[in-house]
Specification:
The protein has no helices and 13 strands. With 179 residues, the protein is mainly β.
């Protein structure tokens, strides 16, 4: 799945399949300006920053079990969001410090380091990486991803795929080749 925020006409947190199909709103109320998103891949939770409402909140992948992690003026200055173990990590855009926040109760906020300039944060650690398994967009015998001549996008599961074409091409009747 692909998770994303939108604060255009109606602010929301959404998810869809990797090919853009099955678009679903998972948060569409009591939300104004969601600017950063982080996923807990193990427990299937979505965290987001709302800088207008000055809050950090969480829901499960279906948009249920919503909770506010922390709320207050300091949220207005945060950008970027990552989750690892018991903490959320974010950047204070006023002084470019990396902050660590307890993700269960919003307490235990600590400044860990200061950077020259940063707007985003990611945690790279082996335990945060999904286990490798075969998927529908792996190269075929000729090294062509998913048998698609241009683009292979995972669909509703890792076993399903959708072939797409680059701009100026159309998908052939075989659903794989572009003309």
């Amino acid at each position: 799945k692909l998770f994303f925020t939108d604060y255009g006409n109606a602010a929301k947190v959404e998810r869809c399949d990797m090919d853009g199909m099955n678009r679903t709103w998972i948060v569409d109320s009591k939300i104004e300006q969601p600017t950063a998103l982080a996923l807990d891949l193990i427990n299937k939770y979505v965290y987001w920053l709302d800088i207008y409402l000055e809050s950090v909140e969480v829901v499960d992948y279906q948009g249920r079990r919503r909770q506010t992690i922390t709320k207050g003026r300091q949220i207005r200055h945060l950008c970027g969001l990552a989750v690892f173990e018991n903490y959320l990590y974010t950047i204070n855009s006023d002084n470019f410090s990396i902050l660590r926040i307890n993700r269960y109760n919003g307490t235990d906020v600590q400044a860990l380091a200061r950077l020259d300039n940063a707007k985003e944060i990611r945690v790279y650690q082996k335990r945060t990486q999904a286990a490798g398994r075969s998927h529908a967009c792996e190269g075929d015998a000729h090294g062509v991803p998913g048998g698609c001549s241009h683009l292979c996008l995972l669909s509703s599961s890792y076993k399903a795929r959708t072939c797409r074409c680059r701009t100026g091409f159309i998908l052939g009747s075989d659903g794989r080749s572009c003309k």
